[in-house]
Amino acid sequence: MGALTTSSSVANEAERAADLSFQYFRVAPDGSETKLAVGEHSAAWATPVARGKPIAENWPSEIMEGLLNRAGERRPLAS
């Protein structure tokens, strides 16, 4: 079995939410890749409120910048 890698992208972003996409690949010894799976995740930034529903907030700029800067990178998965 070869190594596994993943790639991610920000499919859609807004002040209070982001849709993230993921792809998972098996990398053969010759460097060729086989797609194993895809996934999506919708995320929102919120502030917890005691005894109530969380309140959606704008993403902190550092978090949004980090998401956008790292999206599209390929990283090996830990074994």
Which class of secondary structure composition applies to the elements? mainly beta
Major sheet: size, sense and barrel closure? 4 strands, antiparallel
Write down the Rg: 16 Å
Q: Report strand order across the widest sheet.
A: 3-2-1-6
Total beta-strand segments: 6
Q: Helical region count?
A: 1
Percent strand equals: over 45%
Along the chain, the helix and strand elements come as EEEEEHE
Give average pLDDT, whole number: 84
Helix content: 10-25%
Q: Pick out the low-confidence regions.
A: none
- Choose one word for the global shape: elongated
Distance between the first and last residues' Cα: 12 Å
State the domain count.
Answer: 1
Q: How does this model look, in words?
A:
This protein has one domain. It is built from one helix and six strands, in the order βββββαβ. The termini are close together. It has 79 residues and is mainly beta. The strands form two sheets. Strands 3-2-1-6 form a four-stranded antiparallel beta sheet.
Descriptors:
single chain, 52% strand, elongated, two-stranded antiparallel ribbon, 79 residues, four-stranded antiparallel sheet, mainly beta
In short:
The protein has one helix at 61-70; strands at residues 3-13, 17-27, 33-44, 46-47, 55-56, 74-76. It has 79 residues and is mostly beta strands.
SSE arrangement:
Blueprint (H helix, E strand, L loop, with lengths): L2 E11 L3 E11 L5 E12 L1 E2 L7 E2 L4 H10 L3 E3 L3
Antiparallel strand pairs: 1-2, 1-6, 2-3, 4-5
